[in-house]
């Protein structure tokens, strides 16, 4: 499962965060996310403290702010949804800048924005400091379901292959004068999608048969095992431990 290039989300580096074993970072991310979700929405300063903790991790990992900002654009649909909640929400209403907004809706929007933004930022930091194949190794070390890890492994391995084939099909259509200008071209695009699905399915069958012929028995061999020391576990879990301490001060 070796990719010959770095994933576009990954920033190569030699920082302490980069060197931590992936299973430590995965567990730390999960624990931190649980603490964030468990924080009452009224604890504004706690969310500010969580953001400061993530900023410290980003500083230690030497992840530029611009990189974080670009990758967090994925959150825009959630932001738009959250901004609509006060407008369409029920219950007590207040007027803000001439708009009638729902008070429960404002609380719900803040809750979604604060927790989702922290979650996305944590995920971006993980992706920036850990190669995708190492994340899967870490998942194996944490004893996640084997089938789930293998599905993610093959998705990672063949996503670029399928995208390249889709681009070749698009070039072939355009070289024959096709341009998707209006809804009348939908049948052509639909047939291309069907052909891509069939080709991908057939490729999967061939890969599976090739694996069986090489002794595959339902479990992928772990080519490179990554163990973690007590110190590395302590370093990784310092983030959720600090977040938990902040949460404890809010009660």
TrEMBL record:
Main location per UniProt? membrane
Q: Which GO terms describe its biological process?
A: cobalt ion transport
Q: State which residue ranges cross the membrane.
A: 44-65, 72-90, 110-130, 230-249
**Keywords of this entry:** Cell membrane, Membrane, Transmembrane, Transmembrane helix
Give Gene Ontology CC terms.
ATP-binding cassette (ABC) transporter complex
Q: How does it sit in the membrane?
A: Multi-pass membrane protein
* Record localization: Cell membrane
Q: Which PANTHER family match?
A: SLL0384 PROTEIN
Which NCBIfam families does this chain map to? ECF_T_CbiQ (TIGR02454)
Q: Tell me the protein's name.
A: Cobalt ECF transporter T component CbiQ
Lineage runs: Bacteria, Bacillati, Actinomycetota, Actinomycetes, Streptosporangiales
């Amino acid at each position: 499962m070796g990719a010959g290039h770095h994933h576009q989300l990954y920033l190569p580096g030699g920082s302490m965060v980069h060197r931590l074993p992936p299973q430590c970072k995965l567990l730390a991310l999960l624990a931190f996310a649980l603490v964030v979700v468990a924080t009452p929405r009224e604890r504004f300063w706690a969310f500010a403290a969580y953001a400061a903790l993530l900023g410290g991790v980003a500083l230690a990992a030497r992840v530029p702010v611009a990189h974080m900002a670009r990758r967090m654009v994925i959150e825009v649909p959630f932001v738009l949804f959250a901004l609509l909640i006060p407008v369409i929400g029920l219950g007590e209403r207040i007027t803000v800048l001439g708009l009638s907004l729902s008070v429960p809706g404002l609380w719900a929007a803040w809750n979604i924005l604060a927790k989702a933004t922290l979650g996305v930022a944590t995920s971006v930091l993980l992706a920036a400091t850990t190669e995708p194949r190492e994340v899967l190794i870490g998942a194996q070390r944490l004893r996640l379901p084997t089938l789930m890890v293998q599905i993610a492994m093959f998705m990672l391995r063949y996503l670029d292959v399928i995208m390249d084939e889709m681009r070749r099909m698009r070039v072939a259509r355009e070289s024959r004068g096709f341009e998707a200008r209006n809804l009348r071209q939908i049948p052509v695009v639909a047939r291309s999608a069907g052909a891509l699905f069939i080709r991908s399915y057939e490729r999967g069958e061939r890969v599976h048969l090739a694996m069986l012929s090489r002794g595959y028995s339902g479990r992928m061999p772990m080519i490179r095992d990554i163990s973690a020391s007590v110190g590395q576990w302590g370093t990784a879990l310092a983030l959720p431990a600090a977040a938990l301490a902040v949460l404890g001060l809010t009660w």
